Each structure stands twice: as structure tokens, then as C-alpha cells.
## 1
Amino acid sequence: MKLYFSPTSPYVRKVMVLLHETDQLQDVELLNVATTPISPAEPLLAKAPLTKVPALERPDGPTLFDSRVICAFLDARGQAGLYQDGARHWDVLTLEALADGILDAALLITYEARMRPEDKQWEGWADAQWDKIERACAALNQRWMAHLSGPLDMGQVAVACALGYVDFRHDARGWRKGNDALAAWYEKFVGRPSMVATQPPA
């Protein structure tokens, strides 16, 4: 299999953490590609029409894209059980969706500052995206700590990767304020070898 990736992509990091946690890293060839909404990577055009990373090329089927699809595939392939069974399965999916919502909002803030011409940037838009992140972090801190502190699952991985990206690109905005339990959980979780190995480059 071939994984099209970028070392700074938080969506890619979710996949990489899963590969480390499930001992499948040796089964995947990593292909570093630079792609943005306004400058799509040529190698991805024939594989993944949205030209986003991560994208997982398989020898026996179409290329998979979207981190949630790839993670579910690799979890099933490795029989890892990171999506859990029964009622907890839906909690894991909800947590992963919430984490990806944090990533979506954080990435939009990044794009607003880095890709939109300065005279067209809208501070109110970026602030509205940050409001989403604050609400999500508050919800995690208030409602999800018991789950986050339980057995490892993909919801936890997704949340940690999301918070890591917010630190990476928007640390000055301070997501930890008022979220002491979440911050303490995160500081412990990022010490996992899989998280250490997948830190984005400085």
C-alpha cells in the first residue's frame, strides 16, 4: 500500500498514529506530496479526485481518501478494535467527528491567514472558527473526560491529533483556558510513543 501524506497534516497524523499503534507501519510506503486547495498535487489527481491527503492507494481496490475512511479500513485490516463495539462504537465515531470539526475550523483559520490575499482576509471569519474550537474543547472537558480516560480508541487519537494541530498553528489563542481536565489528559496522551513519533516538524 502507498500512503500519500504530508508531515504537517493533522488528518495524516491520525492515520500515522493508528499505523504505529497497530504495528502496520511497515506495510505502507510513505509518499510525501505537497498539495493545497489552490495548488493540487499532480500525483494525486489520478488517485484521489479531491487531491487531499491522506490518500491510501491499495493494490486490490480504489484509492481510499478521507482520514476517517482510511482509519476505519486500517483498523479493520489490523483487527485492532479502535472503533469499539456496541454503544461505545457510536461514542467513538462522535468523538472522531468532533475532533475533525476542530481540525476543519483550525485549518480554515490557517488558510485564511496563509492563502487568502491580505486585503481579502476577514478577522470575523477566523474568530467564528475559533469559537467552534472553544465550544468543542469545552464540550470535551465537561462531557467526555470519562471516555477519553478509558481504553485506547480512535476517538482519543483523533482528539489528541486535533489539539496537537491547534497547538502547532494557533497556540497563542489558548485552547487550554478553562479546560484543565482536557489539558491534563492531553499532556499525558501526547507522551505515547505513537504521538511522539508523529509530531509535525518544527
Note: The first helix runs from residue 10 to 21.
## 2
Amino acid sequence: MKSDLWITEKQTEDLAISFRVKKTLHEEQTDFQHLALVDTYEFGRMLFLDNCVMTSIKDEFVYHEMISLVALNTHPNPEHVLVIGGGDGGAIREIVKHPKVKTATLVEIDGRVIETSKEYLPEIAAAFDNPKVTVLVDDGIKHIQENKNKYDVILVDSTDPVGPAVGLFASDFYKNVYDALREDGIMVAQSESPFMHQDLIKGIHNDLKHIFPLVKLYLAAIPTYPTGLWSFTLASKKHDPQKVNPEDIADTNTRYYNKNIHFAAFVLPNFAAEIFK
């Protein structure tokens, strides 16, 4: 007999998504946010922060491949990569697979996300012990300010723009990211749902356009995120993701991302393209 326990994310004032829970694995109030790990019937083990879905065993590969590999395969030599946030370790797992990456630094403000992910989501948090990886439990905003001209690729793997992640959506932060990148660096930020968060996407795009010469939106299908369609914003000092030679795209044993997806992700449906008009 199935459990009668459900966990619900209130995505807007008028929209919610619920998951039937087999078992609550862990729950605590960290120094920064409420953290819960549950095992669900439909999506397996899931991580929630402040009652919002962060990742699930069933669909996590889409988000983690798409936030990392598009930029890594756009940059011709992504030797030094930084992830701000991303304490579940999924982006790091994908980064270290890329043959040109020499160092992968993770800066996560909430160390409990890292530790509980290692314990309950080992498939996702699988690369923290990789020799390429350095893990820092620290403020990503401060780290960016203190490390100029250091990284080839910076990924902003943040939670929603509330609580501890608010500063990761600010124009001043993007300026500091620009300075932390090398002369041909690339950044990618998760930028929420094109159905539900059009003003946010437009604001991120406009802020980055004042800083970077090239800014582009791309999309991926992630069932557990609001509306199932998610966006990422790429900003580049030099390299255009749509002008990559397909033969240069590394094969890193992916489940969602491939050479065709790399280019197709930038082909926006009309309603999404109209966000920028």
C-alpha cells in the first residue's frame, strides 16, 4: 500500500506541484535554509531547499549536463572552471568528464547541502573526490570578488532568486563575474522558466548585455521544474555557442546533451524569443 504522505512545492501563488513520498530521508534547518531529502514514487530521491525542488534522481542529468556542457564545448580550452552554488555536485560531475578541464572549483555557501548530497544522492555527488576538484564552503559572491582573471568558465548554479541566492542575480555580481573570467571566458546562469519568469529572464539578459558582448538564452526540458521548460543564459566575452564546430564537441557519455542538442537548445519558440522585444 502506498504512503499517504505528499510533499508540495508552491511554484507561484496559483500553481503547485506535488510528489507522493515513500519516505522522508532527512530534514533540517541549516544556517541558511530549510533542507529536506525525500524518496518519492515518481522521481526517486529528491532534494528540496526552502520547499522548492532542487534536483531528483530521475531527471537531474538534464539540468546538470545543460548548465555545464554547453559552455564547456563552446570554449576551445576550458581548463579552469568555477561553479557558484551547485552543492549537490551534479555540475561538478559533468565538468570533470570533459577532457580539457584541469581544475573544477565549487563554492557553495551551505556546507550541509554538500554533506547531505554525498550521503543521500551519491550518484549526483559522485565527483567531489576527483583530483581536479576543489570544494570551498564559502560565499560565492566574495569568492568572485577576490579572484580576478582566473577562470575560463563560470557556472552560476543557484537556487531561485530568494534567500541566500538573491545576490547571484544582481548586476554588480555579473560585473564581478566578468572580471573573474579570463579574456575569452564564458559564464552560464540558470535563469528560471520562460513561461513563469519572463521579467526575470529579460532583466538578466539586459544586465548581461551591458557587460558582455554576446548573451544568448537556451532551453531544456526538466520535468520537476516549474512548467517543465527551463532556461539558461550564456554570456561570452568572445566565443559564440552557435558557431562551434560540431566535431569539436567532446563525447562525455551524456544522457540528454549531444551535438544536435547543443545547437537546437538555442532555437527559441516564438513566445520565448519575444521576451526580448
Note: Residues 70 and 255 are 14 Å apart (CA to CA).
## 3
Amino acid sequence: MSTSEVARPAGFLGGLNSRHHHRALAVFMVVVLAHWTEHIVQAIQIYALGWPTSRARGVLGMPFPWLISQEWLHYGYALVMLVFLWVLRHGFAGRSRQWWNLALGIQFWHHIEHLLLFIQAQSGWRLAGQKVPTSIIQLLVPRVELHLFYNTIVTIPMIVAVVLHRRASAAEREATGCSCGVPRQPELAAS
């Protein structure tokens, strides 16, 4: 899709992807980066500090251990992330849109894996006769490493998309109506 073909939604979505895109994108990216950091901290706890997997719960999982074991919470996050990747994509154009769409596609699969885990947790059925809820790729790669990998390969294209978006051409900004890449006007000096 060329820059001039980007569909501009109206109403709430239109505002979220134009005049409020900068703020919405900033909030979303803080949440995404915080979540990714949780996975990185969990890996550090296991591989650098030598903690057993059962004790390595990231930052929030330490005071709230139930967070780690709730499949509905993990699925809910995966679903919300998928929705926001879809909703905020209208504010992107050109190469930034391609990178954002890549993150969206990867997150769609990540969401399917979490849906499979959620279904197993709710139903008692287990994939391939496993003792615990298990995703498809988890049959090959342990869960901690797999979800760190998933969050990494979703977050990196998002970061690339945001950097490219902040450097958007005038044509891309015009196509989306987004002002994220518009240079800020210097404040007037006090008289």
C-alpha cells in the first residue's frame, strides 16, 4: 500500500491515529517495553542469578506470584496487545507501517499460542499429552525462552516502526493525519 492509499479512520479511531497518536503510542510503547523487561528480568534471574524457573517470576511476579500462573492474564495481555497493534496501525504509513504490520503479524501468532494455553488451562485438555498447558512451539522450546523470544521479535519491529514514524516524510504525515513526526515549535522566550 502506498503512502497515498492509507485509509484514515473517522471518529474516535481517527483522533487516536492523528492528533492523539503520539500520546497513545507513547503509553502503548511504555506498557510493551515494561512487559518485555519482565521477560528479560525473568531470563536474568534464571541464567545470570541461577534461580530455579519456579522462583524466577520477573519484577511484578515477586510480590504477586499469582500473576505468573494466570493464563487468563497472559492471554488478556496478548489479546489487548493485538488489538492496539491493529488500532494504532492507521497512524503509520510507508516503511513504518510495514514494520508495524510485521509486529502485528508476529503478535497474531503469539496470541494464537496464548489462546491455546488459555483453552488448555480452562478445559483441562493438554496438547500432546503434556502435564501442563503447552503451546505448539513450546513442544520444542521451553516456555521462558519462547516467550522472551516472542516478545523480542514483536517489540523490535515496533521500535523500528516508531523510529521511522517519528522521522516520517511530509507525505506520510499528510496521508495519516498524524503529527508524531512534526518538529515541535520552540516556546517563545519570556519578555
Note: Residues 74 and 114 are 7 Å apart (CA to CA).
